[in-house]
Amino acid sequence: MKNHTLKIAFHGAAGEVTGSRHLVTAGDKTLLMDCGMFQGHRNDAALKNREFKFPPASVDAVLLSHAHVDHCGLLPLLFKNGCDAPIYATPATAEIAGIMLADSARLQEADARFYNKIHAAEGLTIEPMYDEDDANKAMAQFKPLGYDTVFEPIPGVTARFQNAGHVLGSSMIQLDLGTGAGKRRLVYTGDLGRAETLLLDDPTAPKNTDYLVIESTYGDRLHEPLQDAEGKLVELIKTTYKEGGKLLIPSFALERTQEIIFILDKIRRYNLAPELPVYVDSPMAVSLTEIFNKHRDSFFFDEKFRDYAKTDGDPFGFDFIRYLRSKEESQTLNNKKGPMLIISASGMCEGGRVLHHLRNNIGKDNTTILLVGYQAAGTLGRRIQDGEKKVRIFGMEYEVAARVDTMHSFSSHADKNDLLAFIKAVNPARGVFLVHGDAEARAELKLSLEAQGIKNVVCPAMGEEFELN
Ligand SMILES: [Zn+2]
Question: Which domains does the chain have, with CATH numbers?
Fold first, then answer.
């Protein structure tokens, strides 16, 4: 192992929760961990996304923790701007990234068309950051590798992916190299799953770690137990069945939708609730569920799930759930009478087909809207969750007569207690960097860690670089 100067620079998700980009330099070689998109208001996002603070052509290897857009969404722009490095990721992450990046390109193209149309009189135009061709070019760079496969992304640095339990394929990135001061191990968690997950193998703490770069999304909050989800869903199905209405679940297409489908499969299998038609109305969720089904016997999933899948050949309910891809099929649901359950994206009701279902059903008192994830301030999902009596959908005002409920037991992220337990188990010898969390979450987690005797806890600022001795 050659001796190198090791540095890490934080080019995103430093004091906020999106746009993860962490640049590791070993000697004269550079390795980028994640290349995520900052997600926020248009002007702010344009500023943070369109220009890299490092030359894309200087990146020698990209290692991707998982396929959420806030971790992989700028890969096409990186390659459009001169990078030609390989992208290492697990096979499931590579497959899911293909779907996410193509969708991201289409959204940007549609957004640019819309912006340019409404600002035509002022002569204002915007260009999408990248298009589907750019996304395809980035996809051609993927080199899929399984967990625990040792590889050498840049000379002198060995790497391996380990299960992070966050979404299908998600991984922690472990880097080993020799510095002037000796051998060093750096682990980046990517997004870290809960200590106990529903479908995936639970994350385990890597050993002999010197430096830990860890997310802190829920550094100041606790989740409700995952076990509560099934009972709540059973109750809502019973009510929907009795009232003959629609149970509408706006859901994130990756992981959350498959978790709900799996619970529905269990409810059906054990006859816990009356049978009602179930529709998954989101082309992306359909494609992603197919990837889950394809990998369902693999190491990505935990033992409990694999045991279930052994006795139930159809854990994602393909035999009773109608998976809808086409717009026409989706529209037929408008005229169908309940009871029925519809799962549709997006999870915060900011776009996607769920808007049509909301428009058609939010004014009916036999509709239940079940929110199953975090609802960011300013989103339609948040307004519905806050109990607003009137909401605007596609520019029209609608009275809210539907029952609104929130399930707090789902999350793909470790909560405060999970993070503390994980960091204590890793017990990094030289330092902890808290990323991917807002200021309050990071500050509270740092205080709690210090109270427990964990030293050298750093909250890096955007663009800040550290030499790792
Ligand atoms: Zn994520």
Answer: 3-221+412-468 (3.60.15.10), 228-406 (3.40.50.10890)
Distance between CA atoms of 432 and 343, rounded to whole angstroms?
39
Q: How confident is the model at residue 2 (pLDDT cuts 50, 70, 90)?
A: low
- Ligand 1 geometric centre to CA of 38 (Å): 13
157 near 177, Cβ under 8 Å?
A: yes
Mean pLDDT for 19-33 is: 95
- Residue 286 tokens read as 């359909």
Give the distance (Å) from ligand 1 centre to CA of residue 367.
Answer: 31
Match 């050949």 to its residue by tokens: 313
Helix residue ranges, H only, 244-302: 256-269, 283-294
Instruction: Please tell me the distance between residue 191's alpha carbon and the centre of ligand 1 in angstroms.
Output: 5
Phi-psi region of 123 (alpha: psi -120 to 50; beta: other; left: phi over 0): left
**Mean pLDDT of the 320-338 span:** 95
CA 467/CA 469 separation, integer angstroms: 6
Ligand 1 centroid distance, CA of 337 (Å): 36
8 A C-beta contact, residue 239 and residue 275: no
Give yes or no for residue 1 having a pLDDT over 70.
Answer: no
Determine the number of helices (DSSP H) and then strands (DSSP E) in the chain. Answer: 14, 23
| Cα-to-centroid distance, 173 and ligand 1 (Å) | 14
- In angstroms, the CA 386 to CA 367 distance is 17
Q: Mean pLDDT over residues 284-296, rounded? A: 96
Between the CA of 82 and the centroid of ligand 1 the distance, in Å, is 26
* 302 CA → ligand 1 middle, Å: 19
Answer for the pair 33, 164: CB distance below 8 angstroms, yes or no. Answer: no
Task: Give 116 Cα–ligand 1 centroid separation in angstroms.
Answer: 31
Calculate mean pLDDT across residues 246-254.
96
Ligand 1 center to 3 CA (angstroms): 33
By CB atoms closer than 10 A (0-12, 13-18, 19+), residue 122 is exposed
Ligand 1 centroid from CA 166, angstroms:
7
Q: What are the C-alpha distances in Å from 415 to residues 126, 215, 290?
A: 38, 10, 29
Q: How far is the CA of 285 from the centre of ligand 1 (A)?
A: 16
Give the DSSP letter of residue 352. S
Tokens of 194: 């809960």
Report which residue type is found at 24.
V
Query: How far apart (Å, rounded) are the C-alpha atoms in residues 82 and 85?
Result: 9
For the chain, give the mean pLDDT.
94
In the reported structure, the alpha carbon of residue 189 is separated from the centroid of ligand 1 by a whole-number distance in angstroms of: 11
